[in-house]
């Protein structure tokens, strides 16, 4: 029996869909059970020149609707396939970040080209645009204001300094050792719930977002509750080191899918090599001979450890190891760019460390949120949190440790200087390797142990030589200052 005139049905193999034209009262019927249905397509209608215009319009709407639903399913399938590999996931992330950077670049170019600052008013929006694009120049600052002068704090006793140093040491160790253990657990272990289902979390970008959003909130609250120097840097300049910071964190999490946590930690200890390279490229820095020697020793030690860990994991494929090494190289490169770019911002604009923390995390939240929403993985990660409550608590503690760790970093450097901070963090890296091997039973060969010892010996040698060189330079300048 032929269908009535105007009835149009289409073959649709996924999530069976029956579409009809407007002549019947039940025109759209969607069945949610999945089974293939074959429906003969037949359209018995008048020629187009005799058909009323509204019938043609309804037919066009039906065709567009089916094409759109097919395209949506194909797009979702393609995105899911791409995100399975680290190369595809990286490509998707970069494309999503480009949707923020490209319009932002043209907006900044337009405001500078049109000399917006010369016609900007005094309202909230003009001030915001001026701060983002131009910043505030130092010649507008009232540096001689007596209200900004502070008396030096009284000299602390030896016992008070020891207590303060112990507080910084324990704060950094507890924060980052806990952060490292949870990081490895989230990216490498399975989660179970009360119903017996098993899940494995894979979205590294969501973990970056969780860490950055809490750090931004803490930095913003600290800025509102404390007196800070006037901010002069264009806000958009934070986006560069924010992007590199996101990418280094993403590589850090993603690498755990291909290499062990001790390998990742030792790669962090070896990041002095790309840091020196980036320093040469960005700031044209010059380095001492001992810095090159220790960099070579660190690279040799890292090579020995990688060879030893490959021997210990006999079943590990060369492609998996190579993927992990490539991601770790990306991590070290992005992290080196971040530190050098932040150093240049500190030198040029004299902002405080908390202002830097707030600006970088602001753009990090913007970029990661945009990417997660565009890829549709934000809701999936939240659903994973609800399905596995243990993952929720692990993510919460991970973000708290990351945020408090950043505050301990800034506080330790401001009180004791960078040398003490580097020593504390080097000890933390060694403890992190031992703790990971103990908790997660990572095998380490004799060659791997020699590589670890060589890396940390080179790091401590570098710290000692740097400290001694500064002392010698200070002694050379003392006679000149006494003669004046």
Automatic annotation (TrEMBL):
- A Pfam family matched in the record: UAA
User: What GO CC annotations are associated with the protein?
Assistant: endoplasmic reticulum membrane; Golgi membrane
Q: How does it sit in the membrane?
A: Multi-pass membrane protein
Highest taxon of source: Eukaryota
Keywords assigned: Membrane, Transmembrane, Transmembrane helix, Transport
Question: Has keyword Membrane?
Answer: yes
The entry's localization annotation reads: Membrane
The leader peptide range reads: none
Q: Which residues cross the membrane?
A: 53-70, 90-111, 162-182, 206-225, 289-308, 320-337, 358-378, 447-465
Name the Gene Ontology molecular function terms of this record: 3'-phosphoadenosine 5'-phosphosulfate transmembrane transporter activity
Query: Which family does the record assign?
Result: Belongs to the nucleotide-sugar transporter family. SLC35B subfamily.
The protein's name is Adenosine 3'-phospho 5'-phosphosulfate transporter 1
